[in-house]
Design goal:
This protein is mainly α. It has four helices and two strands, in the order H-E-E-H-H-H. It has a domain of 59 residues.
């Protein structure tokens, strides 16, 4: 259903035992932004990452290539890495602010 509406690629990832294989769905750019906008009201745990990804994509759509935009992109990459760390406590995400250009 997601692939039909938003596009992207579905693939099976084989793993070594005892881990089981799993399916992934990958969608990028504007299609990913469309998905995130639709699902944003329902996200709780991954909401900061979704907001960060939407802000990043918005800069790309507007064609921002200034020095400031490049620095923001690098800062967003660091921030996303921190947000995706395993074991990150909920209160650790409260200090993160999503910026818009």
């Amino acid at each position: 259903m997601l692939k039909m509406q938003f596009g992207g690629h579905i693939s099976l990832v084989e793993r070594h035992k005892p881990n089981k294989p799993f399916w992934t769905w990958v969608v990028c750019s504007r299609k990913a932004a469309s998905f995130l906008k639709l699902f944003l009201p329902y996200l709780q745990i991954k909401r900061p990452q979704a907001e960060l990804a939407l802000a990043f994509q918005e800069r790309k759509i507007k064609g921002h290539t200034s020095h400031k935009s490049i620095i923001l992109d690098q800062a967003d990459k660091i921030l996303m890495t921190q947000l995706n760390r395993k074991g990150l406590k909920k209160e650790e995400t409260h200090g993160f602010v999503i910026r818009n250009l």
